[in-house]
């Protein structure tokens, strides 16, 4: 009889535990927390495949503190866990240093390389050396026009000219007449293409303003000075999320009524769209760029798969306004948008 009572108590304890877990899972917050915990465990846990542990290296043109590339890395690292990949990351805002970083990965005999081509001429030789060494390369973010010519498997990102044209169209919809396009990295072909694309479709007048992107006070003061001297400017377009905040402060300092718009999305931009401090953002989904680059290299190594059919695999542009900001803010806060 004692054994039966013990068994009953054990079953009861199990039922209580199950019911408790069920109640948590049914609550609006508890279910979400459980799901987030499951995803977090998966992200840092075992691989989903049993392929060899290949090593992939990524080299970007990021400067120090550019949060855009944190999002790219977040996607790449997530895919690396899933695909049993050892992921290496390096960056430099000087093109020659980027080429040397690619060479260092070649010397390490990595199994795949992911690289940006913000200044493609300086990277052509490095990609040729990677190809000679038999290392597959995927380009991301910058250099869609040169990617195939340089021997990359494919390019993942947005067509910068098309993205710029989308900005010009959106400025027209908003009735803007004179815009300032802020280029924060001289020599970056993608930035030139964005502003040129916007100028092509914008019915008003668009002027370029070159600033030193590594010096945020200089960015703010340069924009503020331009807004003070030309009160007819009714739009400012920055080419990266971190610079949107500087443009908003410059607008306030100049007493300007110009709308501030930006390329790229992060938590601060999402909040700015939500509050009305920003008009719109052009999202190229950097998380997806990092994730797909690793995943496509893995697919190529595992199954000789290539996507794009010789054309770039586009992750943007997507125009984000106040209407979508609240929905995307949660994802931006966790670092995936």
Descriptive account of the structure:
- With about 325 residues, the protein is an alpha/beta fold.
- About 55% of the residues lie in helices and about 15% in strands.
- It is built from 13 helices and 12 strands.
- It has helices spanning about 1-25, 30-45, 70-80, 95-105, 120-130, 145, 160-175, 190-200, 215-230, 240-255, 265-275, 285-305, 320-335; strands spanning about 55-60, 85-90, 110-115, 135-140, 155-160, 180-185, 205-210, 235-240, 260-265, 280-285, 315, 320.
- The strands form 2 sheets. It has a 6-stranded parallel sheet, sandwiched between helices. A 6-stranded mixed sheet has the order 7-6-8-9-10-12, with helices on both faces.
- Helix 10 (about 240-255) links the parallel strand 8 (about 235-240) and strand 9 (about 260-265).
- The radius of gyration is 24 Å and the shape is globular.
- The termini are far apart.
- Residues about 1-45 have low confidence and may be disordered.
Summarize this structure as a short list of keywords or feature phrases.
337 residues; six-stranded parallel β-sheet; single chain; disordered N terminus; globular
Spans of at least 5 consecutive residues with low confidence: 1-43
Average of the residue pLDDT scores = 89
Backbone CA Rg: 24 Å
> In which range does the helix fraction lie?
40-55%
Instruction: State the secondary-structure class.
Output: alpha/beta
Elements, N to C (H/E): HHEHEHEHEHEHEHEHEHEHEHEEH
Q: Please give the count of helices.
A: 13
Oligomer: single chain
Strands of the largest sheet, in order across it? 2-1-3-4-5-11
């Amino acid at each position: 009889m004692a054994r039966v009572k013990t068994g009953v108590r054990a079953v009861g304890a199990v039922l209580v535990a199950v019911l408790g877990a069920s109640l948590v899972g049914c609550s609006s917050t508890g279910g979400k927390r459980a799901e987030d915990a499951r995803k977090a465990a998966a992200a840092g846990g075992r691989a989903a495949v049993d392929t060899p542990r290949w090593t992939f290296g990524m080299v970007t043109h990021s400067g120090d503190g550019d949060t855009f590339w944190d999002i790219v890395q977040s996607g790449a690292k997530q895919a690396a866990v899933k695909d049993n990949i050892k992921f290496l990351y390096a960056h430099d805002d000087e093109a020659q240093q980027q080429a040397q970083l690619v060479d260092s990965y070649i010397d390490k005999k990595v199994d795949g390389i992911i690289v940006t081509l913000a200044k493609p001429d300086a990277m052509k030789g490095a990609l040729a050396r990677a190809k000679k060494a038999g290392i597959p390369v995927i380009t991301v973010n910058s250099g869609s026009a040169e990617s195939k010519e340089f021997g990359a498997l494919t390019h993942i990102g947005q067509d910068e000219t098309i993205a710029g044209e989308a900005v010009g169209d959106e400025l027209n919809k908003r009735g803007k007449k004179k815009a300032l396009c802020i280029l924060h990295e001289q020599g970056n072909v993608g930035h030139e293409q964005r502003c040129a694309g916007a100028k092509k479709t914008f019915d008003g007048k668009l002027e370029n303003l070159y600033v030193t992107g590594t010096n945020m006070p200089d960015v703010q003061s340069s924009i503020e000075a331009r807004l003070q001297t030309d009160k007819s400017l009714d739009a400012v377009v920055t080419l990266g999320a971190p610079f949107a905040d500087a443009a908003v402060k410059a607008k306030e300092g100049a007493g300007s009524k110009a709308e501030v718009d930006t390329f790229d999305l992060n938590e601060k931009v999402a909040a700015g769209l939500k509050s009305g401090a920003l008009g719109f953002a052009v999202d190229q989904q950097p998380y997806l760029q990092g994730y797909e680059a690793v995943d496509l290299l893995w697919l190529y190594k595992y199954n000789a798969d290539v996507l794009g059919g010789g054309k770039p695999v586009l992750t943007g542009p997507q125009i984000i306004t106040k209407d979508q900001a609240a929905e995307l803010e949660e994802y931006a806060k966790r670092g995936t948008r």
